[in-house]
Design a protein that fits this description.
Strand order of the largest sheet: 2-1-3-4-6-5
Distance between the termini: 67 Å
Structural class: alpha/beta
Number of strands: 20
Number of helices: 23
Oligomer: single chain
Shape: globular
Helix content: 25-40%
Length: about 625
């Protein structure tokens, strides 16, 4: 795009947009407003950047967040001055906590129009507190070469800081004086003859975090009397915890975890919000029912680990967190970012590297003979202990191979009693869950996530909303080989912007779905306004239990009043009418066969809602009655 020399503001804004385009920006989300007109015009005229206008700033910011989640690249977000900028705040918090790159450009009044009731002027400098990776206010636009050099290099730095050393949001506040529209200025137009764009932009090339060099191995993995790797290799009571993750290259990520697991002969406790459960053939020691297993206190004690490798964030499971807090294994946290990933404040060492790099390092160490820990008694129906070598459930000594969409891993033989106990318990609990849920004919929340893990088309992106959906996925999502791609906003764990984020993930992507409750969807119905600019397909699986189901699981549910009115907060919304308002397809699901039929082949375009009407109290009671029983008799 040629630089727009019509006036000072057009030069300034077009240099900003062109610099970002050359660095690799592909998408800008723009909210309407007057003060941001120079930016809006510059981005709209750059035909190498997809520009998407969205009315609601909060919805726009989460849509941009979703696109950045999907691509791993920064998305630009632009708004006018005043409270428009404040509506970006929740998404900026989520971007920081989830390590998602975002570039936020807020237009502002110039200094002389601040603190004088000029209108639509608030204090926007550092408005987002400490959440941005970096933030600055740009100088008043100037068409001089020296100031344009300053602008170009400031934008380069902002792009870099959105990705390095840890991805996150970057905020630039940009004051503009009038004229905000591209009326000609003869003095500025004359500068065009002196400006050489090839010279000005020389050396600018795309900069992507994904193309950076492999991080060096942390010192703890090298040298010393006994390296960390050697300690791991000697340990027979180790676990790998695959926490919530949405990696850009999930197969490589899961393969690395599987490689580490096979090298160490340690089980992988895989969160439902990790792609690991969807690439089960790569992880022969995959454990998906750990939350339910650990509810059996005697069994949890028998499974006490000596070392735990935690990959990224901890899983959602409170049972797992309490167990780690109680047993206090030596814990290594694997993540290349600078964040602290230990809310338990345990015996923790952060290794600032990627799991892929760790797997590469591990292959460089020759295998060691493990010092077998005291033998764990085999699993016996009705309890633990004893010295029998068989079980009444006739569990085979080898883990069965995983068929397409099925359970288990590649054929392998456990090398120690600790690993075998995890394997045997996983098989029994998984069989119990499958038998229990498959027999349910009525519409009930827990069956939704269990069924989705088996029927979605291969590679489907799924956005999983907070509150009960993420927990049901952790409890019931079945290991498979469908390469399903989970997305979520688990940085701040809020419900705001959920629909908009899911639409951002689905935009120009494979046909996608979102699993959400009714309150979460209602909190972001302005997301439907994106419909006319949306390319792709999103199926919204709406669990409508008329209220906040997660609160039914908490002790406060026993105190009514005020529970129903102030915590459950039922809204009594007719979703068919709501969808009709936005021109969105809607259908009530009456039975599981209809549900499977609607999801076996997803449409190519549009937005639709599949509503499952459930009984909030009955679903909560089912969980309370069953979660602690799945592993009770082992």
């Amino acid at each position: 795009m040629p630089i727009d020399f019509r006036n000072t503001n057009t030069v300034w804004a077009s240099v900003l947009a062109e610099t970002l385009q050359r660095l690799g920006l592909t998408t800008a989300v723009i909210c309407p407003g007057s003060r941001s007109a120079p930016l809006t015009i510059a981005f709209a005229l750059n035909n190498q950047i997809e520009t998407i206008p969205i009315l609601d700033e909060r919805s726009a910011s989460f849509f941009a967040l979703g696109m950045a989640q999907k691509s791993g690249l920064p998305a630009a977000l632009i708004c006018t001055s005043g409270t428009a900028a404040a509506n970006f705040y929740p998404a900026i918090i989520e971007a920081r906590e989830s390590r998602i790159p975002l570039l936020i450009f807020t237009a502002d009044r110039p200094p002389e129009l601040r603190d004088c009731h000029a209108g639509q002027a608030i204090d926007q400098v550092k408005i987002y507190g400490n959440y941005p990776n970096w933030q600055a206010e740009l100088a008043i636009p100037s068409a001089s070469r020296g100031m344009l050099d300053y602008l170009r290099q400031t934008i380069v730095y902002a792009w870099e800081r959105s990705q390095f050393p840890t991805p996150g949001p970057v905020h630039l506040n940009i004051p503009f004086r009038d004229p905000l529209i591209p009326v000609p200025d003869i003095a500025v137009e004359a500068l065009e003859t002196e400006f050489n764009p090839e010279d000005f932009f020389a050396g600018l090339e795309p900069i992507f975090a994904g193309k950076s060099s492999t991080p060096p191995s942390p010192p703890l993995l090298r040298g010393g009397e006994e390296s960390t790797m050697q300690q791991w290799q000697k340990c027979s009571r180790g676990i790998i915890i695959a926490g919530v993750a949405q990696p850009q290259f999930p197969e490589k990520y899961c393969s690395a975890i599987g490689q580490i697991s096979k090298s160490l002969n340690w089980p992988v406790l895989a969160e439902g919000l990790s792609p690991v459960r969807n690439y089960a053939q790569l992880n022969p020691h995959l454990i998906s029912t750990y939350d339910l297993i650990l509810r059996n206190r005697e069994l949890a004690d028998k499974l006490t680990p000596e070392i735990a490798i935690q990959i990224g964030d901890l899983p959602t499971s409170k049972e797992l967190r309490n167990w780690l807090d109680k047993t206090q294994p030596k814990r290594y946290i694997i993540d290349p970012s600078h964040h602290n990933f230990d809310p338990l404040h345990g015996k923790t060492i952060h290794l600032r590297t990627s799991v892929e790099n760790l797997a590469t390092i591990l292959t460089q160490f020759p295998p060691l003979l493990k010092e077998e820990s005291p033998q764990v008694p085999p699993l016996i129906k009705g309890g633990l202990g004893g010295d029998r070598v068989t079980t009444t459930t006739n569990i085979p000594p080898q883990v069965p191979p995983l068929n397409k969409g099925g359970l288990g891993g590649v054929l392998t033989s456990a090398s120690n009693k600790y690993l075998q106990l995890w394997h045997n318990t996983e098989i029994q609990v998984r069989q119990t869950i499958d038998q229990k849920i498959s027999a349910i004919n009525n519409i009930i929340e827990p069956k939704v996530s269990w069924l989705l893990s088996q029927i979605l088309p291969p590679g489907t992106p799924i956005f999983i909303a907070n509150s009960m959906p993420v927990r049901d996925v952790e409890f019931f999502w079945k290991p498979n080989n469908l390469e399903i791609k989970p997305f979520f906003n688990r940085g701040a764990n809020g419900i705001d912007g959920t629909l908009s984020t899911a639409l951002g993930v689905a935009h120009r992507n494979q046909s996608s779905i979102i699993l959400t409750g009714d309150l979460t969807l209602l909190h972001d119905t302005n997301g439907f306004l994106i419909k006319n600019k949306f390319f792709g397909h999103l199926t919204i699986i709406l669990i409508n239990n008329n209220g906040g189901g997660i609160f039914e699981m908490l002790p406060v549910a026993k105190f009514d009043p005020p529970f129903e009115e102030f915590f459950a907060t039922p809204q009594h919304i007719n979703f068919a009418q709501l969808c009709a308002t936005y021109g969105v397809e809607h259908e009530v699901i009456e039975d599981w066969e209809q549900f499977k039929q609607k999801l076996s082949l997803l449409p190519n375009s549009g937005i639709r809602v599949l509503e499952l009407q459930t009984d909030r109290r009955a679903d909560a009671k089912w969980r309370q009655d069953n979660l602690s029983k799945f592993a009770k008799d082992l």
